[in-house]
Q: What sequence folds into this?
């Protein structure tokens, strides 16, 4: 769940373990019917699921924060992380 309601993200494991639910399903780590049930419950509760692979792209908005590693924040950082 994001700190910006009503955004949420569904992952088969810890975020980043797979590049999205498609990869997790292809590797047999996420059952398609389980994913569908989770997404239905989230939608019925008013949440919007954002694909993990989209959240891992670089955030191009303004920020004064500095980041370790690449030095570039991602959309994950923006909506689920520290700023």
A:
């Amino acid at each position: 769940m994001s700190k910006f309601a009503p955004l949420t993200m569904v992952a088969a494991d810890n975020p980043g373990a797979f590049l999205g639910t498609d990869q997790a399903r292809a590797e047999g780590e996420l059952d398609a019917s389980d994913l569908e049930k989770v997404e239905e419950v989230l939608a019925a509760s008013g949440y919007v699921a954002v694909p993990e692979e989209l959240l891992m792209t670089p955030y191009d908005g303004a920020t004064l924060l500095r980041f370790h590693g690449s030095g570039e924040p991602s959309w994950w950082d923006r909506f689920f992380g520290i700023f």
User: Anything to note?
Assistant: The mean pLDDT is 84. The chain has four helices and two strands.
